[in-house]
Structure formats: C-alpha cells, structure tokens
UniProtKB/TrEMBL annotation:
Highest taxon above the source species: Archaea
Taxonomic placement: Archaea, Methanobacteriati, Methanobacteriota, Stenosarchaea group, Halobacteria
Protein name per UniProt: Molybdenum cofactor synthesis domain-containing protein
InterPro entries, per the entry: CinA (IPR050101), MoaB/Mog-like_dom_sf (IPR036425), MoaB/Mog_dom (IPR001453)
Entries under Gene3D superfamilies matching the protein: MoaB/Mog-like domain
Domain (MoaB/Mog) ranges: 4-162
Amino acid sequence: MNAAVVTVGDELLVGDTENTNATWLCDRLDVRGVRVRRVTVVPDEVSEIARVVNEYRAEYDAVIVTGGLGPTHDDVTMEGVAAAFGRGLVENEAAAAWLAERGYSGDDLAAETTHLPADCRPLPNEAGVAPGAVVESVYVLPGVPAEMKAMFELVEDEFAGTLTHVLTVDVDEPESELLDRIASLRERFDVRVGSYPGEVVTVKITAESEAEAERAAAWVRERADAVEDESA
C-alpha cells in the first residue's frame, strides 16, 4: 500500500508550527508496512488543497490530509477536498447527531462545523469537536495533534501493507568512499539502502525478507570498517 500525507496550514509554511503530525503519521504508517511516497505542506487555500489531493488520490492507494478543520475563516480543508472530487459541502446528519449526543446543540456550534463533503463517511472527533471525513480513499483529520492521533486510531486498521525488516550498520569511513559498495549492495540484494553521515556513517538496510536484510548487513560488515555495537 502506498500513501501520501498532506498537511494544511499557513503556519507550517512560515515555520510558526513544527510539522509533528507528518512525522507521527509516517511512523505509524511505516509500522503497518505502508510506504509513504509523498509528504506535502499546502497553504490554507481551497485551490491548492484541491489540486494536490486530486493529484495524489489518482496516484496512491490512500491520502491522509490533516489540518484546517473547523468553522473559522482559514479552515478550508473540507471545501478543498470536496472540490477535488467535484462535490459540494452539505450538512452531515450523522456528524450532527454525534455532536448532539455529546451535548452540542446547533446553537453551540457554527453552522459550518458539520458541513462535510457530500456522500462522505464522517469521523467522530473523540478529542475535540470538528469532525473528520473519509471521501473514497482520502482521509481528512484535524490538525490539533491530540485530535489527529485519536481520529487516526479509529481508522488505523484500514491501512496495511508489506511489513519490512530494518537493520543498520555503522561504518567508520567517509560516506563518499562507500558509494561503490553501496551500489554493489543494491545490485546483489533485494533491499533499499540509505546512508546517513554523522560521527560515523549509518547504513540503513530495509528488506521484505528478514534473511535478506541479515545477508546484506553481513556483506557490509565484511567489506567496510564497521563499528561494533558495544551495547550488544
């Protein structure tokens, strides 16, 4: 399963708010074997949200959109997602009923609170007020981290892919000197390889087969100045 994560908010683009939602979602999806192919930040603009969601829903199995839910002037995510599907926003009776059960009447909420894309599946906000929605393969979640996490956990089982095995080998050599060996590693084994320099170079090996990951890691240790893990 391939997915894209779209985070909405001008505050993210100017650096006022750290994009922790994207990091958290990528981690949870990775654990479930879902490959995140894109992480994109878009402004609070209907046209930009619609354009990106429309592109990604055609390319990937699922799209998760976070941020911009609610009744204020810059909460335009639902409108943007609806536009991506050529739909309008309509009063969602299920969302209104759920909020009523929690003690919210129509007088307590702005009218737009329960306006969701037509023919969507509403998602209750267990940690807040503004509901989310599922429109075909697009999941729309709040931007407040606690609300986003609680809502994602309601649909988490709908995300599944091929679980992978990850091994790392720390190498005490310049990254530039490892290029040929990394190229050979990719050719010899069915693995994905990343290299991350710091005090040492960490070679990250990802494979669907645990045995293949182990063989690839052993190959690196034999052909590079590998640093022994003193904690082992």
